[in-house]
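Task: fold both queries, return tokens.
Query 1:
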Amino acid sequence: MKKKAQVMMYGLMLGLAIIILTLALAPALRETTTATMNQTVGDTLGLDCSNSSISDFDKATCIATDVSMFYFIAGLLLVGGAVVFAKIIFG
């Protein structure tokens, strides 16, 4: 094989590996986020986001924690997609 074809295949494999690992880590990340937002139970510390009498600072932390999972997963998917797209288009 020519070097350019080998580099292209490597780039495609790298991009697909990033996408697959992101999708594999999503359930574990969701579980961690859910545990963080729930009440403190035993050794697991939580923010108690369902409580309406928490401070505004804690409410903002709950919102940031909830949104951060989406941004992390979307960011990794975009990176993987960009690697695949760049190797297909610019070969």
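Query 1 returned. Query 2:
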Amino acid sequence: MNSKFIYSKTINVLIVDDNLLFRKIITDVLSKELRCNIIGDFSNDETIKQKMLFPQADVILMDLQMPKMTGIHTASAWLEECPKAKIIALTIPTYYLYNRLLQEIGFKGCVYKNNFLDEIVMAVENVHNGGVYFNEILHANYISKLYYN
């Protein structure tokens, strides 16, 4: 079943990632597969603070590694101001070690950039509906490839 027919409500998504092409691809995928309204896509947190967009977002996609700031520090500050914010980390697979920390901070999910096309729709759906998305199977597969290939 195509997930874009499940929801009648538009999901407001905010994207924070320093890679313009990656933001464009996420925008295209979420607009096509889900009823998503991208309320902003930014390369860092400075402009977002000025526009105060993060409280308007149903789901925030946050890169963990960016120049001038980290997604962990930005999300921690935002969650102090808006504790119900639903933030999904975007990162590289080696950051699987941070899943526990991400959960303790208040992230609702984590999607790996090398596999995001397979996961981003499911992650946004789960988090938007009040769930979480930390794909433990993907972590285990990644680790086994590192050690056994």
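Both queries returned. Flag for query 2: Residues 9-148 form a domain with the Rossmann fold fold (CATH 3.40.50.2300).
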